[in-house]
């Protein structure tokens, strides 16, 4: 297996542009610019490859052909509605099919590079559109690129793929698409569906008939910060991954669990997000011989958070993690200020937070985070042959 890291990138990925909308492609542009300015993309063993659009044969592994036809047609119909399109969340935009298919193709290219041994790790920061369903758009997502790439890996012979979603919103589309498939373990940490879109992701959602235990949901209460989030992550994710024994780790790394994100109410820091990426890399190294495919996802603090978080992701995937105290380069700060006038452009790659945590124990006075941990462990651990009460599991 190659020790290289593939980063799938081309400026054409910025064409996934919903207009005056929270999901602004500037977050991706500024991520790549920051990673370049810090030398992350110029490291030895890093290969940038250009994406190609997923064709209908790939897309229909996940999406209905009628839905693809509607995505193609919608920009030509001024009053088009249906299939989740033409809403404030999912407005119709020019060349919608082409730009969406390109993002799906980019994530497929990342997955193929890892599966074929051309790279140990691969990243598509423009991807992670995890809400799209087989027959409709949802949550700013037209085509579900993680699901398309996972389906491609299954077609190539993968028998066990673990998908871990750390976006603040539940990874509902990926879970639903593989609900009945025991070859795919979907794990999602998110703000409780009682408070946040899409309203799914409760602990008792554990997989369909014949795939019981293949869906794991950790629904966290609002205002959870790094310590609680890390406590929940480490109380559940390593155990279920070790029980499942994946061949590939696929992660959706939405940056919207940050305390500054305007669309949700978890209180993570960039430092906590960096710690999560390091933990995911370690799990890929332990369980999958390093095979790790990572995408971006949500993130609406376009200057303040997303570029720093995903540059930490890229650094973690391509070699040594960046020192949190690293200064953001002046040229990048000037670009960010020009792209988003009035934004609070960060000076350093840190929020100055220690992301340490106390490991979970099944004793003591339960707090809201521990109740969330206990609910998930009780629901899914027995299905995976694990003891929900044993902290060693």
Automatic annotation (TrEMBL):
It comes from the Bacteria. GO terms for molecular function: histone deacetylase activity. InterPro entries: AcuC, HDACs, His_deacetylse_dom, His_deacetylse_dom_sf, Ureohydrolase_dom_sf. Residues 21-316 form the Histone deacetylase domain. Transmembrane segments: none annotated. GO terms for biological process: acetoin catabolic process; epigenetic regulation of gene expression. Keywords: Acetoin catabolism. Pfam families: Hist_deacetyl (PF00850). Pathway: Ketone degradation; acetoin degradation. Belongs to the histone deacetylase family. This is Acetoin utilization protein AcuC.
